[in-house]
Design goal:
With about 475 residues, the protein is an all-beta fold. It folds into two domains: about 375 residues, Neuraminidase; about 80 residues, Immunoglobulin-like (Sandwich), CATH 2.60.40. About 5% of the residues lie in helices and about 45% in strands. It contains two helices and 35 strands. The strands form nine sheets. It has a four-stranded antiparallel sheet with strand order 1-28-27-26, with no helix packed on it. Strands 2-3-4-5 form a four-stranded antiparallel sheet, with no helix packed on it. It has a four-stranded antiparallel sheet with strand order 6-7-8-9, with no helix packed on it. The chain starts with a helix and ends with a strand.
């Protein structure tokens, strides 16, 4: 049944992608560094603000020194690049971007020493309409001489949280040990406090921490966990949530037997309903996977995505759809959207046939999906209106229902009709959960439904209208 419903959506599944636009014609990939893994990619990061603008940062070696550059824009124009790092003679890498509710922009990154034997985390911020601040040293070079892979987020109270890896040499294991450090800053970039590490086993490495804040005030941290003694080359995704005083017990999301490298993509996304989506990549075999944690519940079983890429990005739109773009083995950018629990594969997203696209970065501003990538030394950009537009609504008055997401109920308002309408609610597997006859306007109770994403179907006079909605 669900596939049948989705088939009605496919012909009108949003408008097409805009033509590829060259934002900046001369971006240079940074050179490889021996310290901290691969730094050969631009490492884009993009975040929206409340004013329908997109903020973009990337590492760029075009000037001979690798710097962190920044630009902001809409669907029509972007500003000239600004230098965020302002750190000559050293290499800047792995930028992470966050946007506060008041419009202030934060960027954290790693600054590599000239001899590539030291690395420190820096933070810079920008007030609306102002300039970037001088870089603020985040990590302690004496205590943590090697600090890499920063991740920054802003909480609802305006606190700035930075998580990063500190690297030390383990003389017992004769190997490097990666640990997670987390610091809290006020809006002016001064350290307020340090948070305890969410790691449960300090004898194992914890790679590439990702920090994220949700709308309920929670702070989430995910990372690739290290060797467990049984699978020397195994990694798995671990997770904790900070409740204001301590981290919850760390949970593993993926199978510890999976082969995962520390430089593979990892992402943690939250939606308007408070659900958490974690995406990761296993290496042997190459598989892209995801797991969803509905608000107030545990993680659902992990799912394998219809891709085989080690470099990708994803974004969640306001209607709950998950969009995914990744490098394909052939050099194109594969694209798909997950709606109502099912994946819909799109066409590859490169500017011209035969050209290669790399390092995709996605961001959502209102109902516009933005995609950035590097192609032939250029920074390219495409957009797509993500709102689902049904063919039925182009010839009939719209179906209105609110609120979405909902908790106990939602209200449906239909145009005056000469007959009753049939309302049905299906789960992601296509099972019929609710059925009710209405006329004109009605309130539908969903209190008995578990939190999750559902499909609403309204049929009247032979015309079917469908929506996805979220129950939290």
């Amino acid at each position: 049944m669900l596939l049948l419903l989705l088939s009605h959506l496919l012909p009108a599944q949003s408008v097409n992608w805009s033509p590829a636009e060259v934002l900046f014609p001369n971006i240079a990939q940074p050179g490889s560094a021996d310290l901290g893994g691969e730094t050969s990619g631009p490492y884009f990061d993009a975040k929206p603000d409340a004013g329908n603008r997109i903020h973009l940062v990337w590492s760029d070696g075009a000037a001979g020194e690798t710097e962190i550059l920044y630009s902001k824009g809409t669907t029509t124009a972007f500003s000239s690049p600004e230098n965020v790092s302002q750190m000559p003679q050293t290499a800047s890498a792995w930028p992470s971007l966050a946007v506060a509710a008041d419009g202030r922009i934060y960027c954290a990154w790693t600054e590599l020493s000239e001899d590539m034997e030291g690395a420190s985390i820096f933070l810079s911020f920008k007030n609306p309409g102002g300039n970037w601040s001088s870089p603020v040293l985040v990590s302690d070079p004496d205590a943590d001489p090697i600090s890499i892979y920063p991740s920054v987020c802003v909480t609802g109270t305006g606190a700035v949280i930075i998580a990063y890896n500190s690297v030390t040499f383990d003389e017992v294991a004769i190997d490097y040990l990666f640990e997670i450090q987390i610091l809290v800053f006020n809006p002016s970039g001064s350290v307020i406090d340090g948070l305890p590490s969410p790691e449960t086993d300090s004898s194992s490495s914890a790679f590439r921490p990702i920090i994220a804040a949700d709308k309920s005030g929670g702070i989430h941290c995910v990372w690739y966990d290290g060797d467990n003694g049984m699978v020397p080359s195994g990694r798995y995704v671990a997770y904790s949530r900070f409740n204001g005083q301590t981290w919850t017990q760390t949970n593993s999301i993926s199978d510890a037997s999976e082969q995962v490298w520390d430089d593979l993509s990892l992402q943690c996304l939250t939606n308007d309903a408070g659900d958490l989506t974690v995406l990761w990549t296993s290496f042997i075999p190459i598989e892209n996977q995801m797991a969803v944690k509905p608000l107030g519940q545990g993680f659902e079983p992990s799912q394998t995505l219809p891709f085989e890429t080690t470099n990708w990005d994803a974004a969640i739109t306001s209607n709950g759809d998950l969009h995914f773009a990744g490098d394909s083995p052939e050099g194109s950018l594969d694209y798909a959207v997950r709606t109502a629990g099912s994946w819909l594969l799109g066409t590859p997203l490169v500017s011209e046939a035969g050209e290669d696209g790399y390092y995709p970065e996605m961001a959502v501003s209102n109902d516009t999906l933005h995609l950035f990538w590097e192609e032939g030394g250029q920074l390219l950009h495409r957009t797509k209106i993500s709102q689902l537009i049904r063919t039925a609504e182009s010839v009939e008055p719209a179906l209105h229902f609110f609120p979405n997401p909902c908790s106990e109920w939602f209200q449906i308002t239909l145009p005056p009709l000469s007959e009753e309408s049939q309302v049905q609610v299906f789960d992601a597997n296509g099972s019929l959960l609710l059925e009710q006859k209405i006329r004109g306007k009605a309130r539908i109770s969903v209190a008995a439904l578990s939190p999750g994403t559902y499909v609403l179907s309204v049929v009247s006079e032979g015309l079917q209208r469908t929506r996805t909605f979220v129950k939290y």
